[in-house]
Amino acid sequence: MLDKKGVMIMAEKDSFVVKALIKKVQDAGYDSCYVKPDINDLHRRWDDYDLLVYYMDNNDHLSAETVHFLTDKLTDLAKHFIIIGDPIDVKRVTEKMPHNHVYKTFKRPLDNEGFFAAVHDAFKGVATEEAKKSIIIVDDDPTYMGLVRDWLKATYKVTMATSGMQAIKWLSTNKADLVLLDHEMPVTNGPKVLEMLRSDPETKHIPVIFLTGKSDKASVMEVRALKADGYLLKTIEKDELLRALFEFFEKKKG
Question: Strands, E, within 17-100: which ranges?
Fold first, then answer.
C-alpha cells in the first residue's frame, strides 16, 4: 500500500453501489469515504484525500458552484479526478472541466480491473508529482499561462493563478518552490504581489521570478530594481525556459 491518504467517492446518494465501491477501495488498501457533490462537504474533506472519484447515476449533474470549486481546486496537480457513469453523462461533465483536470473516465457497469489499475497509477503519479519542485505561474493571460504550464509539467509540479490575489490566497495554504510572476496584471500587478509576499513571514522566502513582455532597457531596469530573484522575457522559448529554471534550482542547492 502506498503511504497516501485515500480516495473520496463523490455521488448524489450514498447508495448500495457506492457503499460497495467504497468497500472495494478499502479492501485494495486505501482509505475511502463518501462525499456529496456539495462544496461545503468537499471543502471539509479535501485536504485529507488525494483522489476524487465521481460516481454518476442517471441524470446526475454538478452545480455551477461545484464545477467552479473543482476547476479551482484541481489545479493542484497532486490531486486526480476519475469519473464513472454513462458516456453521455460523463461527456456532459467533462465538457465543463478543463481538459487536463479529468484523469480517467469509466462506463457503468464498472470495469473493476481497469478502475483499480487507474487508481494505483494515479497514486504513483501523486508520489512522482510530490517529488518534483513546485512552481506557481501567475498571469492574467490564460492562453500564455497554459502554454508555459504545458512546457513545465513533465519536470515540475505546476499550479496556475489568473490573478495576484488568487496566487496570494493559494500560497497562504500551499507551498511553492518558485513563483513565476507576470509583471503587468490588472488590479494587483506583479510588483504589488511581490511586495505582499515579502511582507508576510510565511511567504517572504519564496523565490519570485518575473515574467515580462517588455524587453526595452528602461522596462528591464525597472523590473530588476524590484529585487526579485530574476526576470524572464515572455519571448523565451521552451528549451531556454527549462534551462533557466534548471540552472536557478541548481544554484539554490549551493
Answer: 32-35, 51-55, 80-84
Q: pLDDT for 78-91, tens place per residue?
A: 578 999 999 999 99
pLDDT at 187: 87
**Is 40 contained in some domain?**
yes
DSSP string, 199-247: HSTTTTTS-EEEEES--SHHHHHHHHTT--SEEEETT--HHHHHHHHHH
Task: Report pTM.
Answer: 0.56
User: Which residue do the cell numbers 549551493 mark?
Assistant: 254
* Degrees to nearest 5, angle at CA 124 with 25 and 11: 35
Is there a domain that residue 2 lies in?
no
**Of residues 89, 115, 96, the one with CA closest to residue 32:** 115
Cα 42 from Cα 248, distance rounded (Å): 37
- pLDDT confidence of residue 164: 92
- DSSP assignment, residue 118? H
Show the domain range for 145: 132-253
Question: Does 117 share its domain with 150?
Answer: no
Task: Count structural domains, the chain.
Answer: 2
Supply the DSSP symbol for 18. Answer: H
Low-confidence ranges of the chain (pLDDT < 70): 1-4, 75-78, 99-100, 125-131, 254
**Three cell numbers written together for 47:** 485536504
